[in-house]
Structure formats: C-alpha cells, structure tokens
Amino acid sequence: MADPSSSFLCPITRELMTDPVIDPDGNSYERSAIEDWLKQHSTSPITRTPLRLNDLRPNRALRESIEEYRNKQSSSNTITKSKPITIVNNQSFDLKVTSSWLNDFTHISIQPPEGIGIRAPCDICCVVDTSGSMSTNVEIQGTSNDKEGCNLSQLDLVKHALKTIIHSLTQNDRLSIVSFADCAVIVFELHQMDDEGRSNALAALEKLDENGSTNLWDGLKTGVDVLV
Questions:
Q1: Does the pLDDT value for residue 144 go beyond 90?
Q2: pTM
Q3: Residue of 72, 105, 93 whose CA lies nearest to 1
C-alpha cells in the first residue's frame, strides 16, 4: 500500500482524515479532532492564532482526494495478496541520568528519550536577569583546580543559551523575552519564530546589558503574564 500524502493526515491525530475541515489559515483537520481541541483551547494548534468553531469550513476538495486514495488502495488490496505485517515499537521511554560531585556541588544531567513524530507547538517566555551582577566574568576551573577567566560575562553565557533556544524553534512556535533588573521589561513581545521573528528576537537579545538591582519577582510575574 502506498503511503498517503501528508496533507491527507490530520495534524492532531496523525491519522487519515474522513471528514476534513479547513481553517482561515488554510490548515485542515479531522472535524472531530479539531472540535475536541477547541473545547479546551481558543487558538489554532498549528499557528496559535485565534480560532473558533464557526471559522471552520468543510474541505470538500481534500475529502474527495482522500476518498479517491482510499478507493485506489481498496482496489489494489483485492488484486494483491496481503502479507502479515510485524509492528515494532522502537520508542524508548527510559530517562538517562548521570551525576557527578565536586567541592560540595552536585551536577545532575537528565537526557529524555528521543521523540517520534511531530511535537506540538509551544509558547516560550525567556526571563533574563540583567542586573549588575550579571556583568561578573565567568571563570573556568581547569584540571588542576586553577580558575581561569574567559573574557565572558554571565550575561554573555545566558545570551548564548537563548540563541540556542531561538534557533531550535520552528515557525509554529512562539517566543517572548523579558528582562529584569530594578523592574521587568518585555523586550520582545510573543511572536512566531518564522524567519522575521527569529531575526527580531536575536536583535532584541543583543541589546540586553547589565544594570540595576535584582527584582526577580517582577521578572517572573511579567513572564507568566506574557503567556497567560
């Protein structure tokens, strides 16, 4: 049996659709799946833009194409002798945990199992400490326990980590950046991580500098407010 086109599969259930509907953005879903989604959410599961039940319309052209595919597969199955298929689930659900201890500090690393399929879109708000203490130079401890400077501040390392997050997101994800010192500031509003959004997020990140005190509570509250 030939594999169906990816457009025939519901992005929520990943199964062949029987009653496809289409939203204003041109995304199609199995009717029952998107109706169940919208009972708990008010946004598209793909673009995160506002979406309501009455925005959906039957996708008749897609339905006819899927029915044509089903009919062809049905005809093919009556001619060829089917063979038993062995289904093997290679997905692992084991966590890999390693730990080390040095000078009264414990480092624990947890590696999650490799996922399969397409992950759900996500909204991320990065709350960044930009107080004066973040200008402190980072020191690296060598094998002989000697500490060496690397001409990088703590904020430089945080920026590098955020760049990794930004580049790992897809256009279906959204990101916001909040900085806090004396008070919290939204330096990058929640936005899709398409090419334009990624470029603007990186530009906003580069403008962060160290100053002021550490109003952590205002940073956390503002970050939560962005996502609510």
A1: no
A2: 0.51
A3: 72
H helices present in the chain, as ranges: 31-38, 60-79, 154-168, 195-206, 216-227
Instruction: Tell me, yes or no, whether 129 and 67 share the same domain.
Output: no
For residue 201, give its domain range: 122-227
Calpha distance 77→80 (Å, rounded): 5
Indicate the helix (H) or strand (E) that contains 188.
strand 184-192
Residue 211 tokens, joined: 């100053």
Local structure of residue 103 (DSSP, 8 states): T
Helices 195-206 and 154-168, axial angle in degrees (round to 10): 180
- Residue among 113, 72, 117, 73 at smallest CA distance from 95: 113
- In tens, the pLDDT along 147-171 reads 776 788 999 999 999 999 999 999 8
| DSSP 8-state secondary structure symbol assigned to residue 193 | -
User: H-helix or E-strand containing 221?
Assistant: helix 216-227
Question: Tokens at residue 63, please?
Answer: 């339905």
Q: Is residue 160 part of a domain?
A: yes
